[in-house]
Write a structure and sequence with these properties.
With 185 residues, this protein is mainly α. It is 79% helix and 0% strand.
Length: 185
C-alpha cells in the first residue's frame, strides 16, 4: 500500500463516525420530532406569526422611530425562527433564509390573532405605536412561557438548544418593550 492509499483509507475511516451520527453511513432514519417538540414548535409559530405579521406592518406604519426600529429587528428574528422551526419539522435545511410568506404567516394565526391583526391595521400614529407595543409585550410574555414550558419537558437536544437561545432573546425583548411602553406613555 502506498502513502496515498493509506491517507485515503484513514480519511474514509475518520468520516465513518460523523456519517453514522448523521444517519448516512448506517442508513438510519432521522429521529422525528416527539409530541412535546411538535407542540412547542406549533405554539411558538402561532404566537411568533402574530408578532411577525404585526411587525411587518409596523416597519412602515409605526410613527415612533424606536418602535419602527424594534419592528425591523423583530421581523428579522421571527423570520429566522420560523425558518428554523419549519426546517426542524420537515428535516429540510439550507443555508439561505427561507422566511414565511404573508399567506403562510397568516395561516399560522388563530382567530384571536387574526382579530388582533385586523385591529392593528385600522390604527395609526401614537395609537398604532402603543397598541403594537402592548401586543408585542403580551406576545413575548406568551413566547417566554412556551419556551420555559418546553425546557422543563423537552427531550430533543437541538430543539432544547434553540429554545434556550430564544428564551434569552425573548427576555431581552421584554425589557426593551417595557422601556418603549414607558417612553410612549
Amino acid at each position: 500500500m502506498n502513502r496515498g492509499s493509506i491517507l485515503k483509507a484513514a480519511s474514509a475511516a475518520a468520516l465513518i463516525p460523523a456519517l453514522s451520527i448523521a444517519g448516512i453511513a448506517t442508513a438510519q432514519p432521522r429521529t422525528s420530532m416527539g409530541n412535546a417538540a411538535k407542540k412547542h414548535a406549533t405554539e411558538t409559530k402561532r404566537v411568533g406569526s402574530l408578532s411577525l405579521a404585526t411587525s411587518r406592518i409596523a416597519t412602515s406604519k409605526a410613527s415612533d422611530p424606536m418602535v419602527k426600529e424594534f419592528a425591523k429587528w423583530e421581523v428579522a428574528e421571527q423570520e429566522t425562527i420560523a425558518d428554523i422551526l419549519t426546517s426542524a419539522e420537515t428535516g429540510k435545511a439550507e443555508g439561505a433564509l427561507n422566511p414565511p410568506t404573508e399567506r403562510e404567516t397568516e395561516a399560522n394565526l388563530d382567530a384571536a390573532g387574526r382579530t388582533s391583526l385586523q385591529k392593528l391595521q385600522g390604527l395609526s400614529g401614537a395609537d398604532f405605536d402603543k397598541t403594537y407595543i402592548a401586543a408585542q409585550l403580551d406576545g413575548h410574555r406568551q413566547l417566554l412561557a412556551i419556551q420555559e414550558d418546553y425546557l422543563k419537558i423537552g427531550k430533543n437536544r437541538a430543539q432544547l438548544s434553540i429554545t434556550k437561545l430564544a428564551r434569552g432573546q425573548i427576555r431581552e425583548h421584554i425589557d426593551h418593550l417595557e422601556m418603549l411602553r414607558s417612553k410612549l406613555g
